[in-house]
Amino acid sequence: MITETEALTPTTSAATDDVIVLDDLHRSYGLGERTVTAVDGVDLTVRRGEIVALLGPNGAGKTTTLDMLLGLTDPSSGSVRVFGQKAAQAAASGRIAAVLQTGGLLSDLTVRETVEVIASLHGRAALSRVPDVLARADLTQLSRRRISKCSGGEQQRVKFALALVADPDILVLDEPTAGMDVTARRHFWDVMRADADAGRTIVFATHYLEEAEQFARRTVVMHRGKIVADAPTASLRASLGARLLAATLPATGADALMATLGATEGVTELRVDAERVSLRAADSDAVASILLNAGAHDLEIAAPTLETAFTALTED
Ligand code: ATP
Prior knowledge:
By secondary structure, this protein is of the alpha/beta class. It is built from 14 helices and 13 strands.
C-alpha cells in the first residue's frame, strides 16, 4: 500500500537505494609542516547493486578512502554513512566486508580452518556457507592446504573467501586480484558480476585499468585526495580518450598531408614511423577523410581507451 507521504515523495525509494554516502570527507596525517592530506573533500554516493571502480595513481587516497568506508580509520572531518549507519557499526554487523591489500593470515591453519574460524564469528548461518564460499573462491581443491604453503594468488583467494563468508551487502576490494593469474582473475570477476546482479554492491580499487573497463559500470578517478572524474566507465573513456588513427602515407604529397594534419584542431601525438603516420584525433571522421582524400591508405582507427582518459585526468 502506498501511503500519502510516499506518494508525495517519489524520490524515497531512490534515496534508500543509496547504500554508501561519503560527505565532504577529509583525512590528514601528521602535524604542522609534515601534514599529509590523503583525502581532501570526497563526496560519493553509491547505490545498491552498483560495481564501482576506484582508480588513481599511487598515493591518490584510494586506500585511505576505503579504510574510512570500512570504519578502520576515522575521518579528520566529513561523514561516512553505510546503510544510514556509522561505518564501524555497518562493519560490525557484517553488512560491509572487505578484501584488503594488508592484513595477514595465520600460516599454520589450513584454508578450510581459516574460513571456518572467521565464519564462526558470524554465526551458524555463516558456518553452513563455508563449502559454498570455498567453491566460489575456487578453493575447494585447496581446502586442506596450509596457508603457509599457498601461493600469493591463492592467499588472495582465501581473503576473498573470508570477505564472502559474512554474506555482506557491500563488498569493498582493495586491489583484489593482485597476484592472481589470468584464469583466477577471470573466475573472480565472474563471481563478482553474478553477485552484483543479485544486488550486492561492489566498490574496488585497482591499478589494472582493463579491470575497470571490463567490470565496472561506473568509474571514479582520484588524484591528490580529490575525485577528478565520476562517470559511467564507457562515457569516461569516450569523453577523454581520443581515437587513435594510423595510415600509410601516399607516395606523393606526404609532406603537405603532414602539414595539414599538424594544423588540424584536436590532433595530438602526430608521428611517422616507416611510412606509417599515427595520431590521436578528437574528430576521427574528419581526420580519416583528410587522410583518405590525400591518398593515404590502409587506414586503422582504434577505439579510445580508459588509459588515455586516466592519463589526461591524473597528469600534473
Ligand atoms: P596506492 O595506489 O599506492 O595504494 P592510494 O591511492 O591507496 O595509493 P593512500 O594509501 O590512501 O593512497 O595514501 C594517500 C597518501 O596518504 C599518500 O601520500 C600516503 O603516503 C599517505 N598516508 C597514508 N597512510 C598514512 C599514514 N598512516 N601516515 C602518514 N601518511 C599516510
